[in-house]
TrEMBL record:
Residues of the Orn/DAP/Arg decarboxylase 2 C-terminal domain: 19-361
Active site per UniProt: C334 (proton donor)
Entries under InterPro entries matching the protein: Ala_racemase/Decarboxylase_C (IPR009006), DAP_deCOOHase_LysA (IPR002986), De-COase2_C (IPR022643), De-COase2_N (IPR022644), De-COase2_pyr-phos_BS (IPR022653), Orn/DAP/Arg_de-COase (IPR000183), PLP-binding_barrel (IPR029066)
Domain Orn/DAP/Arg decarboxylase 2 N-terminal: start-end pairs: 33-272
NCBIfam families: lysA
Stated family: Belongs to the Orn/Lys/Arg decarboxylase class-II family.
Keywords on record: Decarboxylase, Lyase, Pyridoxal phosphate
Name the record gives this protein: DgyrCDS3857
Amino acid sequence: MKLNEHIVKGIEKDISPFYYYDLKVLEETLMTVKNESSKYNYKVHYAVKANFNPKIMRLISNYGFGADCVSGNEIIHALKMGFSSNDIVLAGVGKTDREIRLALENNIFCLNVESLEELKIINNIALDMGKFAPVALRLNPNINAKTHHYITTGLSENKFGIPLTMLDNILDEIQTMDNIYLKGLHFHIGSQITDLTVYEDLCKQVNEIQIDLEKRNINLDHINVGGGLGINYNNPDDSEAYNVSNYFALFDKYLDKRPNQSLHFEIGRSIVGTCGSLITKVLFVKKGIQTDFVVVDAGMTELIRPALYQSYHQINNLSSLDESCRYHVVGPICESSDCFGKNIILPKTRRGDIIAIRSAGAYGQVMSSRYNLRSTAPALYSDGTKVGFDDKQLFPDSIFTDKDHFLTPARAAR
Ligand code: LLP
């Protein structure tokens, strides 16, 4: 990654740390996802949780993708950003009554249901509203996604989804629920998946489950296989690593299709991950006993992934081309885990150098916090625009006008 005029301007204006989004990279990714998914007539829902920045969301909705939401606020936001309600799905193991109502009021495509307990509540609410609730059952296929254990979701020990052993009973119960319309099955086995063979296992499971359902005369409108396609954190400039083309082709090969049944995906990271970098300035190069510390002005408050998952993000010094040295790159937060990388090889680094922490477009800015009463980092885009993160600039015409970043659905509905 190279220094450009927008990044320099951001540094000159002293807004560091900030997120920098390369819209060209985003558009290229969107075009690829669009072309590859259209080959098979797949429906792609963008997982809003990965990055809900309005500029990014509007661009994604312009490409005609649906939205995968995990809260009432995400539904409201997705609608404002131009996503059509019948392309929105709502997931989540703990939907509130208000969120269920909001979903039904807006006639979203489907609620992905995670338990019998939830199904009963949805049925009651739908009855009360005089509606049919379109649902997909989120099944837990007990597949090891071979990713970090914090972001694996399809194992029976995880809180997500309905265990396969409970499926028969739930299908019996659904017969008695007048306001539930069972239209699909939903799966999501984890995130940052780089070994695509785990999806072959998923397809095999889905095929078997469908055969069982058909024995019960249950024919479904759609299958939603979730998201999880990984990106190449080791080399952010390599777009070929776990490419969407292989990913989509795999489902075409291994999933037994039914006529009139649509196949849905919910990808987040693979859409927005590579377009974003966290830009930060070097405050000090502090002498250490074995290794010197590069102390930057960004911390785990701006990008928590390294601290939370020990995840690797490539670090580039955009200011120096000198000979290489070894450093620990750390932030200013009062936690030892506030470290972006240990023993990182960088060009000789000095106070004032500009550092890019790469592949931070997904689960970066949106997972930031105010710990240590930090200011929230703004976003700067490759078209020269800048948007604050926690103020009215970010959501100028939306529900997010309160002092809080995120409103509860109760307050949002007022
Ligand atoms: N669908 C469901 C039901 C999900 O739970 C998720 C992500 C997705 C789709 C999108 O997955 P993706 O395509 O983005 O992998 N904060 C973590 C990632 C958490 C993912 C949560 N669920 C991280 O920074 O790695």
